[in-house]
């Protein structure tokens, strides 16, 4: 819902802040207004810390050249770790999915972030996400298992099926997270117990 400035009896700076907050995912006009006025009441020093943190995340972060997770060092700490199982790659749609899976402390392999899912209705094809980079990583015979951890929704299923067709001929074991995850949800919102069971109970695709 677009905000109408003529209906905003407030300072232009406040209106602009509300307008920008309203562009964030999950933030409607009412929530944007509450956040804006909360920031107005917040001490200037705390507000500056928030602004600096937002700028810092844009200036200092980049994508890992191996797994394409968000990182401030390249390669990322997970890809560099000798404690991880380098023979397994877990494929996720977004960087925040790694955060959710790591929180379970169940999986000890490496990751590959696609940065999206195949969705013909939205004009997103296989060439628009990091599939070519994944296939390069699978060359050489060092990978024994690929875990498909795309979201349990229509786009995630389409992506998983497409990847399975590409990877299976390479002789690599392809597994899928167990069906403890409700269809239509997103990985980052699943609780730790559900994710743990999904990882431990993964099945052949």
Structure write-up:
By secondary structure, this protein is an alpha/beta fold. It folds into two domains: 5-60, RecR Domain 1 (Helicase, Ruva Protein, domain 3, Orthogonal Bundle), CATH 1.10.8.420; 64-204, Dna Topoisomerase Vi A Subunit, Chain: A, domain 2, CATH 3.40.1360.10. Helix content is 40%, strand content 13%. The chain has helices at residues 12-21, 29-41, 44-60, 77-80, 95-103, 131-137, 154-167, 192-200, and strands at residues 62-63, 70-71, 85-92, 109-113, 145-148, 173-176, 203-204. The strands form two sheets. It has a five-stranded mixed β-sheet with strand order 4-3-5-6-7. Strands 1-2 form a two-stranded antiparallel sheet. It is elongated.
Outline the secondary-structure elements.
Layout: H1 12-21, H2 29-41, H3 44-60, E1 62-63, E2 70-71, H4 77-80, E3 85-92, H5 95-103, E4 109-113, H6 131-137, E5 145-148, H7 154-167, E6 173-176, H8 192-200, E7 203-204
Parallel strand pairs: 3-4, 3-5, 5-6
Antiparallel strand pairs: 1-2, 6-7
CATH-scheme architecture of the largest domain: 3-Layer(aba) Sandwich
Strand arrangement, major sheet? 4-3-5-6-7
**Structural class by sheet pairing and helices:** alpha/beta
Number of folding domains? 2
Note the overall shape: elongated
> How many strands, what sense, and barrel or not for the largest sheet?
5 strands, mixed
Roughly what percent helix? 40-55%
State the end-to-end CA separation.
41 Å
Number of helices: 8
So what's the oligomer here? Answer: single chain
CATH class designation of the largest domain: Alpha Beta
Estimate the mean pLDDT confidence. Answer: 89
- The count of DSSP E runs of length 2 or more, i.e. the number of strands, is 7
Would you identify the regions where 5 or more consecutive residues have pLDDT less than 50?
A: none
Spatial extent as radius of gyration: 21 Å
What's the CATH topology label of the largest domain?
Answer: Dna Topoisomerase Vi A Subunit, Chain: A, domain 2
The percent range for strand residues is: 5-15%
């Amino acid at each position: 819902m677009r905000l109408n400035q003529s209906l905003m009896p407030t300072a232009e700076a406040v209106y602009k802040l509300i307008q920008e907050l309203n562009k964030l995912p999950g933030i409607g006009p009412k929530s944007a207004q509450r956040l804006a006025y909360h920031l107005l009441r917040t001490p200037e020093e705390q507000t500056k810390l928030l602004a600096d943190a937002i700028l810092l995340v844009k200036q200092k972060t980049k994508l890992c050249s191996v797994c394409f997770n968000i990182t401030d060092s390249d390669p990322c700490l997970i890809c560099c770790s000798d404690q991880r199982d380098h023979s397994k790659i877990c494929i996720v749609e977004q960087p925040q999915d790694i955060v959710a899976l790591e929180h379970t402390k169940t999986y000890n392999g490496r990751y590959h972030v696609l940065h999206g899912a195949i969705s013909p209705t939205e004009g997103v094809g296989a060439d628009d996400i990091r599939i070519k980079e994944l296939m390069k990583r699978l060359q050489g015979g060092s990978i024994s298992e690929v875990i498909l951890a795309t979201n349990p929704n229509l786009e995630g299923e389409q992506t998983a099926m497409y990847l399975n067709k590409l990877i299976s001929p390479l002789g690599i074991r392809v597994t899928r997270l167990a069906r403890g995850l409700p269809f239509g949800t997103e990985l980052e919102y699943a609780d730790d117990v559900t994710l743990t069971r999904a990882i431990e109970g993964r099945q052949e695709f």
